[in-house]
Predict the structure of Nucleoside-diphosphate-sugar epimerase.
Amino acid sequence: MSNERKVALVAGANGVIGRNLVEHLVSLGDWDVVGLSRRGAPDRGRVRHIAVDLLDPAGTRDALAGLTDVTHVFYAAYQDKPTWAELVPPNVGMLVNLVDAIEPVARGLRHVSLMQGYKVYGAHLGPFRTPAREDDAGHMPPEFNVDQQNFLEQRQQGKAWTWSALRPSVVCGFALGNPMNLATVIAVYASISKELGVPLRFPGKPGAYTSLLEMTDAGLLAKATVWAATDERCANQAFNINNGDLFRWSELWPKLARWFDLEVAPPLQMSLETVMADKEPLWNAMRDRYGLQPSYDEVSSWRFGDFVFGWDYDVIADGSKARRFGFHEFVDTEGMFLSIFDELRKRKVIP
């Protein structure tokens, strides 16, 4: 397969997952890439971007009509909604519209890769069986990740193409304007704490400070996604993808605070969405003082921060299936966070 032309269609190309996936595909040298997003982006090198609303079936068909040479679809698009039930129609609909549009024109389609997460196991609902495994029993709907996989499984029957599903933990990497960006949440929260002269307090539930967690580096996930899409052993399989180490915030939080030259005080449970609601004027002053680039809206993922910091139970999954199938990459989680902070500072996202 390495000698054959490969053309990737990446849905959600401007997000944390999609952006890192596009960069990885380009680095491999034998891929052409088409990125899909609502906003679009400038074309560069072997990457061209198409602005498309995947919720619009006719518009999606029109936008993708000329993509006859696509061989691999990587689906990482996501639309946020306030409730679990409301997440289902748009997120399933976008995948259906994309497959409906590309399958008839891309005659050489080989694979459709689906990005999922631990919601498949009910991690968002409360304490669940850990470490979660890919063959664990399902749970009461609604859950759009499950519905998306069911759609792909049914659609793939009798077709030449295959599918894979990647299940990362919380994905950390560089991207702005993303509703699920934990590294930016921590970096901006710490930067504002420093500006106000207050210590860095863990804002989540007391039990969350000592629970076992794991993260997934966006670069690691990109490598795993391409591996699963191109290794024949992985056809029609789901894989948990995580960094490979476990941590507790009680151990990691002081180390993250040290990067910002901040003291740590005892945890204090508070809603970031509430306490950070009035911080835009302060952020604007910090932008002027330090020459920062992003607006407050672009770095405000407070609701997602509250969600993750509210896990007062273990959130871990067994990553051994991917290793058994041949993927052996890993990332040190502490180093991942510090590397992302370095990047955020370099790009003038934080002081």
